[in-house]
Design goal:
Strand order of the largest sheet: 14-15-11-13-12-17-18-16-19
Radius of gyration: 36 Å
Shape: globular
Distance between the termini: 60 Å
Number of strands: 19
Largest sheet: 9 strands, antiparallel
Length: about 725
C-alpha cells in the first residue's frame, strides 16, 4: 500500500459498484487502524491477507487476490454480485471526494454504520468499537490466544494465519465439490429426462388455463414408466392429465404434466366375462364404438363422451341411476405406475385396499396406465321427458325414483317448473318406437326466440339452437336478476313444449348437451340406503337451496341438475359408503351453474366472482347439515390460509384423509404426481406453491452457471459421440 494507514469504503462499493472489496494492509500497519465495519467485513467475508514483512506492493496485491478469491466467490454467489470484483485503494488522509477514475466518497467512523447492507446480513455494523473488536477477534481465532493479527507473539499469529488458510482451502474445494455435484446432477437429469415441450393447456369451459413448462406425452407404457421414474428421482412434478375437461383444472400443474392422450388403445374385450381392458388415454366415445361389435357397453355414462377413461374414473365421474354406481366402482382391475413402488397390478384379489383407494385416487397415488372395466350387454333406452310442479315432484318422487333405471331432475330457479327426464331399457325383441312430440322444433324454440327479439333485436335468431339461444339471451345481462328470471321462464316453456319420448342406444340417450362455457359446482350427499328407503333428504336439500336463491336474490340460471347413484366402494369417492355399511346406499348429486356467454374479460370476471359467492353460500348454508362432498372435478382450493385450513378440516371429516396420505407416502413419497389442489386439501401445505418461492429463485440463480456449463457438456458429448460413430463406421 502506498500509505501505512488507509481506509476502504466497502459500503460505498456495495451501494454504488455492487462489488466485493479486497484489500491488503501494509506490512507494518495495524488492523485496528481500519474502521470497525471494514475489519468485520474483511475478516469474515473477503479476508485479510498479510504478506511477509519484506514485500512489494505487487506481492501484497497478489497475496490479497490469492487468499481472498474463494471467499470472494462465496460473497458474490450469496449476494448476486456480478463477476469481476473491483479492487480499490483509498487514502485516509486524502480528500473525502477521493481521487482517480474509481474514486468514491470515504465514509468516516463517525457516520452511521447501521444502514449498511452488511449489517442486515449479520456481518457487522455495531458502532461500539469494543463489540466490533470482540467479533473480529472471534472470527480470527482469538480462542487460540492473542488479539487480532499484528498483535501477540509470532507463533500464535502464525497459528491463526494457518487456520485462516485452512478454512479458505476447505471453502474453496467445498464450493468446487458443490458446483461439480450440481453440474453432474443437472447433466444427468438433462440426459435422461423424457421428451417434453412447453404448452398452454385450457379446460373445456375456458375457465382454467395453465402454462406448463414440461408437457410430456409418452407414446407407450415403457415411456410412461421412465417419465415417472425420472420425475421421482429428480423431484420434478409431473401431474397426469386426461382430456383436461374438469371445470376446476384438477390435473393442471405449471411445473409438469403427463398427458396420456397417445395411450389410447383398446387392448382386450372379454365377451364371456363382459369386461374390457383399455389404456387410460382411450376416450369414452372411442371405447363405445370398439365395444359395439361385441354387443357390450358401459353401465353408465356421464354427460360428456370426450373424457379419457383414466380421468373418467380417477375423479369419480358418474351418470344417473338410483341403482347404478359411479364409473370408478365398475373398475375391476388396473395397472398403476407409481413413483415409489414401480408398476403395480391391482384388483380385488391383489392388494384390494390399495386397489379401492387408487380407483378414485385423483391421479395422486399413481398413473393409471391400463384399466379393466365391467360392461353390460348393449341396449337401447326409451326416454321420457316431461315437466312437473314442485308439488307434483313431492307427491311422485319415490315412485319415479324406483320406476326408472336412469332419472334426472332439472330444476328451473325462480319458477315452479321441474324438468324430469327418465329412461328404461327397451324390452328385448321390441322395435324402437318413433319419437313423439306435440310441437315442432320451431314451435319449441318460439318462447326463447320471442324474448331474444325483444331484448336483443340486433341478434338474428335464424339457425340458433336451444343452447345458443340461451347464451344470447343471458349475454344481455347475465347478472341482472329480473332479466335472468325472464330467461328462466322462457326456458321452462321450451321444456314444457319439449315433452315426449325418444329411443336410442344407451350411450346416445345418456349423453346430452351441457350448453356453452360455464362455471359448475356439484356436490353429493347420502339420502338413504336404497330407492325404496329414501330419507327424502334429496328433496329437502333442493327446497332449501331454492329458498336461499329466492331470499338472497341470486341471478341463478337454469338448470340446477339433480341426479342419483348408489354408493361406491372406493374410499375417496364423493359417494363412498361410510364404515362397514353393506347397503348399496342412495346418494344425490346436485349441480349449480352460471354461464359465461361473453368473451369480454371484465364481464367474465364479474360472473366468476358472482358464481364463487353463489357456491360459497350454498356450502355455508347446507354443507355441514347434509355432509356434502364436492365432485373432484369441481372442488377448488380456496384463497387464503384460513379458508384453506377450514377446507382441509372439512375434507378430514368427509374422507379417510389419513389413510389416503399413508398410501401416498408409500406410492408417491415426493409428491411428484400432485398439484396445489391435492397438497392444499389432502397433503402437505408446505408443498403448495402460489408462485416461485424465494428459495426456488435463489437456487435458479445459483445453479444457472452449472446449467449453462451442463448444456455445453451435453453438446460436446453429442458431438464426440457423432464423431466416434462416424470414425468407427457406425459401430458406436
Amino acid at each position: 500500500a502506498p500509505d501505512r494507514t488507509m481506509r476502504c469504503s466497502s459500503l460505498a462499493f456495495l451501494r454504488q459498484r455492487g462489488s466485493a472489496a479486497i484489500f491488503a494492509p501494509a506490512p507494518d500497519s495495524s488492523l485496528t487502524s481500519f474502521p470497525p465495519h471494514i475489519r468485520v467485513l474483511g475478516s469474515s467475508l473477503v479476508g485479510v491477507a498479510r504478506p511477509p514483512k519484506q514485500s512489494s506492493p505487487e506481492a501484497e496485491w497478489a497475496a490479497a487476490s490469492l487468499t481472498s478469491s474463494t471467499a470472494n466467490v462465496a460473497f458474490r454467489s450469496a449476494f448476486g454480485v456480478p463477476n469481476g470484483a473491483a479492487r480499490r485503494w483509498y487514502d485516509a488522509r486524502s480528500s473525502p471526494l477521493g481521487r482517480g477514475r474509481f474514486a468514491t466518497p470515504v465514509l468516516r467512523e463517525s457516520e452511521d454504520m447501521h444502514r449498511s447492507q452488511v449489517q442486515y446480513f449479520g456481518f457487522g455494523g455495531d458502532p461500539n468499537k469494543e463489540n466490533n473488536q470482540l467479533r473480529h477477534n472471534k472470527r480470527l481465532g482469538s480462542g487460540l490466544g492473542g488479539g487480532p493479527l499484528g498483535e501477540g507473539d509470532d507463533e500464535s499469529n502464525e497459528s491463526r494465519r494457518s487456520g485462516l488458510i485452512s478454512d479458505r482451502v476447505w471453502l474453496r474445494y467445498g464450493v468446487l465439490l458443490f458446483a461439480g455435484t450440481e453440474a453432474f446432477a443437472w447433466v444427468r437429469s438433462e440426459q435422461t429426462k423424457p421428451e417434453s415441450e412447453e404448452q398452454t393447456v385450457q379446460n373445456w369451459s375456458a375457465t382454467k388455463e395453465v402454462g406448463c413448462q414440461r408437457y410430456v406425452q409418452p407414446e407407450d407404457v415403457d415411456a410412461l414408466k421412465k417419465a415417472v421414474e425420472w420425475a421421482n428421482f429428480y423431484g420434478k412434478r409431473l401431474r397426469p392429465v386426461g382430456s383436461a375437461l374438469s371445470p376446476n383444472g384438477a390435473a393442471f400443474n405449471p411445473e409438469g404434466m403427463l398427458s396420456l392422450g397417445l395411450l389410447d388403445k383398446v387392448l382386450q374385450v372379454d365377451e364371456k366375462a363382459m369386461t374390457v381392458t383399455v389404456q387410460a388415454g382411450a376416450r369414452v366415445r372411442e371405447l363405445v364404438e370398439a365395444l359395439r361389435p361385441h354387443g357390450l357397453t358401459l353401465k353408465n355414462y356421464a354427460s360428456i363422451r370426450e373424457q379419457q377413461i383414466g380421468g373418467f374414473t380417477q375423479v369419480g365421474a358418474h351418470g344417473t341411476g338410483a341403482a347404478i354406481p359411479p364409473l370408478d366402482d365398475t373398475v375391476v382391475r388396473m395397472t398403476l405406475v407409481t413413483p415409489g413402488k414401480g408398476t403395480l397390478e391391482l384388483s380385488e384379489d391383489s392388494d384390494p385396499e390399495t386397489f379401492r383407494m387408487a380407483r378414485c385416487g385423483v391421479g395422486a397415488l399413481g398413473v393409471a396406465a391400463e384399466i379393466t372395466m365391467q360392461c353390460v350387454p348393449a341396449h337401447r333406452l326409451l326416454e321420457h321427458t316431461w315437466t312437473a310442479t314442485h308439488a307434483e315432484v313431492d307427491a311422485n318422487h319415490d315412485a319415479w325414483l324406483q320406476a326408472f333405471q336412469h332419472i334426472r331432475y332439472m330444476w328451473v330457479p325462480h319458477t315452479d317448473t321441474v324438468v324430469i327426464v327418465g329412461s328404461n331399457p327397451l324390452p328385448e325383441g321390441s322395435e324402437p318406437p318413433e319419437p313423439t312430440s306435440i310441437f315442432t322444433e320451431e314451435a319449441k324454440l318460439a318462447p326463447m326466440v320471442a324474448l331474444l327479439k325483444e331484448v336483443a333485436p340486433r341478434v338474428d335468431p335464424t339457425g340458433l339452437g336451444f343452447g345458443q339461444l340461451r347464451d344470447e339471451l343471458l349475454k344481455v345481462a347475465p347478472l341482472e336478476l329480473q332479466h335472468v328470471k325472464r330467461c328462466n321462464v322462457a326456458e321452462a316453456e321450451f321444456w314444457t313444449r319439449n315433452a315426449g319420448t325418444r329411443c336410442d342406444w344407451s350411450d346416445q340417450i345418456l349423453g346430452f348437451d351441457c350448453g356453452g362455457q360455464q362455471h359448475v359446482y356439484e356436490i353429493a350427499f347420502r339420502t338413504g340406503d336404497s330407492p325404496a328407503k329414501n330419507t327424502r333428504a334429496d328433496l329437502r336439500y333442493m327446497r332449501e337451496l331454492l329458498e336461499m336463491i329466492e331470499a338472497e336474490g341470486i341471478p341463478a340460471p337454469a338448470p340446477i341438475e339433480q341426479r342419483w347413484s348408489t354408493g361406491s366402494k372406493s374410499p375417496m369417492s364423493p359417494v363412498s359408503n361410510d364404515g362397514d355399511d353393506t347397503s348399496p346406499g342412495l346418494h344425490s348429486w346436485v349441480g349449480i351453474i352460471m354461464y359465461l356467454p361473453s368473451e369480454v374479460p371484465a364481464e367474465r370476471d364479474k360472473i366468476t366472482s358472482a358464481f364463487k359467492a353463489y357456491a360459497a353460500r350454498e356450502t355455508e348454508l347446507l354443507g355441514d347439515k347434509y355432509a356434502i362432498r364436492t365432485h373432484w372435478a369441481k372442488v377448488e382450493l380456496p384463497d387464503g390460509e384460513l379458508a384453506r385450513k377450514a377446507a382441509r378440516e372439512t375434507m378430514a371429516k368427509r374422507y379417510p384423509v389419513d389413510a389416503f396420505e399413508a398410501k401416498r407416502k408409500i406410492l408417491d413419497p415426493n409428491g411428484v404426481l400432485a398439484n396445489n389442489m391435492i397438497e392444499g386439501l389432502l397433503g402437505h401445505t408446505s408443498r403448495v406453491k402460489d408462485g416461485p418461492s424465494v428459495l426456488d429463485t435463489l437456487m435458479d440463480t445459483l445453479t444457472y452457471p452449472f446449467r449453462y456449463v451442463g448444456t455445453i457438456i451435453i453438446a460436446d458429448i453429442a458431438n464426440l459421440s457423432d464423431a466416434l460413430s462416424t470414425s468407427t463406421g457406425g459401430a458406436l
